Amino acid sequence: MKLTWNRFSPGVWRAETGSEPITLTGLSGVDPAPGLREGPEADFPVDVEADETSEFLVLRIPLSDEERIFGCGLRFHSIVCRNTVVHLRADHYHGNDDGRTHAPVPFFVSTGGYGFFADTPDPVSIYIGTTQRLSDKPEVEERDRATDPQWRCYNSPEFVEIAIRSKKARLVVFAGGIGKCVARFNLYCGGGFIPPKWGLKLWHRTGMSMTGRDVLALVGEYEKRKFPLGVIGLEPGWQSNSYPCSYEWSTRNFPEPEKLLDDLKQRGIRVNLWENPYISEKSELFRELKPFSADHLVWGGIVPDYTLEPVRSAIKRHHAKHHLALGVGGYKLDESDGYDCWLWPDHARFPSGTPGASYRNLCGLLFERITSELYRENGRRTCGLTRSGNAGGCSFPYVLYNDRYDFREYLAGLCSCGFAGVLWTPEVRTAANGDEFLRRIQLAALSPMLVINAWADNTVPWSFPEVEDAVRAALALRTKLTPYLYSAFARYHFEGVPPYRSLFMDYGYFLSDNRRSGKLDSTKNPYQEVVQKDITDQFLLGDSLMAAPLEPGKRSRTVLFPPGKWFDFHTGEFVSDGGAKTIEVPENAPLPLFAPDGAVVPLEENGRIEIRHFGTKPGEFVLYDDDGESFDYERGKFTRTVLKSDGSRQVETVPGAGMTPRSE
Amino acid sequence: MKLTWNRFSPGVWRAETGSEPITLTGLSGVDPAPGLREGPEADFPVDVEADETSEFLVLRIPLSDEERIFGCGLRFHSIVCRNTVVHLRADHYHGNDDGRTHAPVPFFVSTGGYGFFADTPDPVSIYIGTTQRLSDKPEVEERDRATDPQWRCYNSPEFVEIAIRSKKARLVVFAGGIGKCVARFNLYCGGGFIPPKWGLKLWHRTGMSMTGRDVLALVGEYEKRKFPLGVIGLEPGWQSNSYPCSYEWSTRNFPEPEKLLDDLKQRGIRVNLWENPYISEKSELFRELKPFSADHLVWGGIVPDYTLEPVRSAIKRHHAKHHLALGVGGYKLDESDGYDCWLWPDHARFPSGTPGASYRNLCGLLFERITSELYRENGRRTCGLTRSGNAGGCSFPYVLYNDRYDFREYLAGLCSCGFAGVLWTPEVRTAANGDEFLRRIQLAALSPMLVINAWADNTVPWSFPEVEDAVRAALALRTKLTPYLYSAFARYHFEGVPPYRSLFMDYGYFLSDNRRSGKLDSTKNPYQEVVQKDITDQFLLGDSLMAAPLEPGKRSRTVLFPPGKWFDFHTGEFVSDGGAKTIEVPENAPLPLFAPDGAVVPLEENGRIEIRHFGTKPGEFVLYDDDGESFDYERGKFTRTVLKSDGSRQVETVPGAGMTPRSE
């Protein structure tokens, strides 16, 4: 079948199969961001062959030998995708990068100069370099594995095949390098969010059944110990019923929620409320939403169909009355990923006709939509946590989290999230010892959202006295970096550049490739042959910093420095001019953080901005600021200040050129 | 929708949806075994509610609080199924019992007195106690997780829901206890196979590129060291091309295959040939089968559609000429499970119209069919190895294996396979040390097929001199147990009782259930609450022995003894009268093996049968024998001898009653 690609904006094309396909971006209700109109124009970058079977719409794109693919949803073990298959599906991550993940985003980008987005909530499988067709046979050179050392698991020609379990879909192609394609994808999905400034502060999620009185005591303890706190997150017990949820205050635990929220507001603390999507018969919403719910229950609660406008309106009305009117700052949506078995089944029927499997890919996204619109309609920014997201949610101020609590996975999530158009937070719960606790706090303090989740264990920053000073230093660094991070979020919003991203996004796939020379170990699996070079333990935050966290218990690690000179952020000293280097890290030392030659980094020190410059090259930084609370920045009410260095430590401050305000 | 259940045989009923559904048993070409006609009759044991969505046929069965489910395919971590979901799909097992497995058998059995079999190659998902419907709401009692200690992840009413991605299916229900239902399922699928006697001996799979000369040298070494060998398995290099395969001899490595096979036959050794399903253009079969192949290639080879009779005939004709005529004993089919990425995609088109995902569930099964029929047509028994199987293959003489090489998984596979209607072998490759090698050999020596797979590392029984005597003892035990095991296979064939099985199959779910009292560990995942008692490290072989293998490196373990007295097989001493007991196992000691009170076990000692009796209770054993090579046993040419003990060590030998010959 023939696809007709229509130019949508510079370097962006769309094609549709079937009439009026239902799309992720359509369901998110968000328009592409104005930044998408920026150039450069480009030629259509890729051959896409389309085909239909009785069950699938199938796309096929050639894959060259040196090409690498990134994306295919949020990943936790690998970033480089080659010779692998993903069956994208919202689920709790269960240990394999096979497509079952918290953000099953049907988008990928290729080092070959294009990005591809299947804008559909229906199940999408992506086969990367694993398929050949009978019609390719003349070009396929057969080799004999037993005798020919040139035999390969995968041989040319190679392809990416995308199979969509639906005949109706909108397809989007982006042109550019991998960074440009990701930025265009993000802008296409509405552009990144800018959190309220309070969202960048320390979050503390309380124990499951804490009362209002307990909360005030906890906040008092934070104040006494001088740990500045930004947000209190109330876990299930704030509600009159949870699992399933009432979304209404427990009169026993929180007899005077309005007074509590006022009190906390006086102390500069916002409140975030935990919810899951399953509604209790005790909720005011139950009777109204029952007719708009799935034919299956979860934890005995109804599963409202968020694709329906009456459902979204009812939830907004309810939440405005019970929460916003009291000053609640936002939400955490739990359990929308389901662990597969804590969810409606694929055969569940939803009133809108959305298949159960497709609604899985939508539930978290649409919760983000409902609550984002609610706050936008009230002129206040929000931000929060969610267990599942998808493409189309880029402008919704949510970060993803999960339960696995594996340090390496949490770190890899930060490396991969930028390729999936989402943000990831490695939340801190408790730890086996002070060293682990510190490493986790240090990582969280450099992440999109700094969350201590004391749901199960009443952890506090001072839980491990032996590292209390080092924890305090990590939290202080977070505060110092606020203007820097806030400016990175502004770039996410206006230009689509993720504030947290893989080294590959800025530096390309700069590693030598030894994927085909894996050594056999026959005490384990002697057939495992595919080894790929990947970087899943270092990430970029903003444009000028690279983090190389240390795993708990480790005192040294290898850091891979991209080409160019690199400097230690903490000391300013020269560290490397590219390549691998082992670094030693003393006990309780800060998280290893590096800046490239010429980097300019603004730091907040006691309420004023101090500017640091690294190395000897000239450089600049665009410092963004606004009121931190409202959407006035969308109408041009923000400042941009260009911080310029000529290469010496002197930095010049230049008022920035106005940016194009976002059109409403 | 209404299902009409038709009685098929005593305690077996069938219902169909759609006209002439394609079934696994139909595709396997096997008729139910005569033993299925045995009683007792029973009432239809279960309520099955049927429903159709746009995509699925959905069945629903009530699940009581104390009920447990077993089956749902070959599993490697757990046997007890409750509050879990499986999406059955042939695949290399990748660490989770989520339905992706080498034998995705859509069958389960309940302690509630029934078995259920969805006789379809199409994708089947089974939701066990994880779904409730809106229509159940009046019966669902809501609780509040934050305040009510009685809150549960799953609450009543509970159900099993089965979703079949197809509107046409045949459903089969069995009545009886779990052992009876499993036996009826196996008989429905044709009854278990009886291997040729040589199949129970030691198998050695050679290095990938071994020549005929190397093979003879190896066999000479076995003879010199007096390690009796039954089968030589030739790995990929025997072919003129492998990955993809020619199925024809390599003239370089095997210039005179006929002479080699004759030579080996003289020494009492059979030859087994490795194959994968993907056919090279160098094969005589290529041109003939290309029109009957999928539209996708694997490793550059065509993927023939085994559901088509011309394909099966062509392969039989080819293999008869190139292999059987020379005396080849059988096959090992590799790579039919695919690791997901080494396979055709789900959207591949097959000439028969079989969907790609359904063909995944069939490929291994149909290879078993082709080769089983080939040998049957020649009047000789075969046996071999396969990487994927399914329901319908019970009478095909194949055992499953995989690559993971995890000792605990290999052991759990032996415990679970009986619930899936398949057999599993924990093959031995190399090891990190002698202790591990010994533990692996000991486990393999008690399994359905004793295989050393030296494909990658040239392992031999004497690879670790420090345990050579202990290895020799393990192999000797295998030989002694041959009549016992052979009789167990006869029961598999005539009565459907698996020779390898879980303790639960004979003793019921006899453990106390603490699945709802899991302790939180917030240094890990603080939300993990479901803990189930399971037994995945002990199994029954035959009717009179229980194995409790030791993991490599361990010198003690806890053994769970079912109610009643148990005796040490090796010493005859009393060990336990039920319950958990820690046993100590000296270095290089044999694998812990126990017999219940009254057990009678025949042992082969220097060509004659020695009979052992354990404990003081009377007992008996039915010793089966036949020519060990032909199918004459199906025409009544076998002997049954009842070995009876009155409780003293005296054993009386009684010629057995004739069994009903299998009708041809």
Describe the structure.
The structure is a homodimer of 664-residue chains. By secondary structure, the first copy, chain A, is an alpha+beta fold. Helix content of chain A is 20%, strand content 23%. The first copy, chain A, contains 12 helices and 34 strands. In chain A, the strands form 7 sheets. Chain A has a 7-stranded parallel sheet with strand order 20-19-18-16-15-14-21. In chain A, strands 1-2-13-9-8-5 form a 6-stranded antiparallel sheet, covered by helices on one side. Chain A has a 6-stranded mixed sheet with strand order 3-4-12-10-6-7. The longest helix of chain A has 28 residues, at 468-495. The first copy, chain A, is globular. The two termini of chain A are 38 Å apart. The model of chain A is unreliable at 512-520, 525-532 and 657-664 (pLDDT under 50). The interface between A and B is large, with 92 and 92 residues. Strand 17 of chain A pairs antiparallel with strand 11 (132-133) of chain B.
